[in-house]
Amino acid sequence: MSFVPQIALATAGEDLGQRLYEALARTGFVVVTDHGIDLSRLHDAYAAVEAFFALPEEEKLAYVVGRDGQRGYTAFGREHAKDSPAPDLKEFWHVGRDAIAPNVWPERPKSFSREVAWLYEALDELGLKLLRALTGPLEVPADTFDEIAEGGNSVLRLLHYPPLSQDADPASIRAAAHEDINLITLLVSASASGLELLDRDGTWRAIEAPADAVIVDTGDMLARITNDHLPATTHRVVNPEGPNGSRYSMPFFLHPRPDAKLAVFDQFKDGSEAPDITAGEFLRQRLEAIGLK
Length: 293
Ligand SMILES: O=C(O)CCC(=O)C(=O)O
Ligand SMILES: [Fe+2]
Description:
Blueprint: E1 6-8, H1 9-12, H2 16-26, E2 29-33, H3 39-53, H4 57-61, E3 72-74, E4 91-95, H5 112-138, H6 144-149, E5 155-161, E6 175-178, E7 184-188, E8 195-198, E9 204-206, E10 214-218, H7 220-225, E11 235-237, E12 247-254, E13 261-262, E14 277-278, H8 279-289
Parallel strand pairs: 1-2
Antiparallel strand pairs: 2-10, 3-4, 4-5, 5-12, 6-11, 7-10, 7-12, 8-9, 8-11, 13-14
The structure holds 2-oxoglutaric acid (AKG) and fe (ii) ion.
Keywords: Dioxygenase, Ethylene biosynthesis, Iron, Metal-binding, Oxidoreductase
Pathway: Alkene biosynthesis; ethylene biosynthesis via 2-oxoglutarate
EC number: 1.13.12.19, 1.14.20.7
């Protein structure tokens, strides 16, 4: 039995919210199976993403948009975790909602925009469904997350961790320990192992999930509005110990709309809570801390 609880979405029924809540409160992660996302289409999306990262570096660099990396391409070695000076060993592509900031799309491969836009919508829908299920145990109105996150500033990150190079900074790992900034993150299973969570007892534990599962974790925004009743979970991606191949993964960071207020739910207020802040301002502060602003 894996350390992280697993929930089959299609058959969870009425228990879904409570089981999600307990899993996230206990480990900060939950593995969701039978989630309804079309697996053959997911395979096509992965193929398009791999084909993009295989392009020459100059071609990819043509898709760097501004400095904050919220759309298009971010080159290898550019981002570091909030408390880590050494850069992560990754390159990535960000897709978001056009109404908030227009996307850019690569010329090649041709299928990229179609497959990636499809995946964005599918994960957005699944994420809101999970958040809606959490409203029961959180004892907040059922439309709470629709109010703040429908049409939100969510970002799908397509990640490539290249094979480890001899001259990589010895202080760097694929993704240094961090917490995600957003409400929840949905990760369609990665192409290789390496993802670890920091257990509440201080132990790093590998996250195991079936290849067709979606891994869900809590971010800082959910921690903030629940006054840490659902704490954000520290996680990292370690370097490969076996074969030195590429690793691909696709986290979807579910964000509120930038103007939505992050206010602690009344029943979690105890005098220690953080002040209200807009999701946009919270994000700006955090992007600055990871070298992207
Ligand atoms: O690559 C992964 O499996 C996780 C990546 C991650 O944690 C992140 O980009 O925030
Ligand atoms: Fe993360």
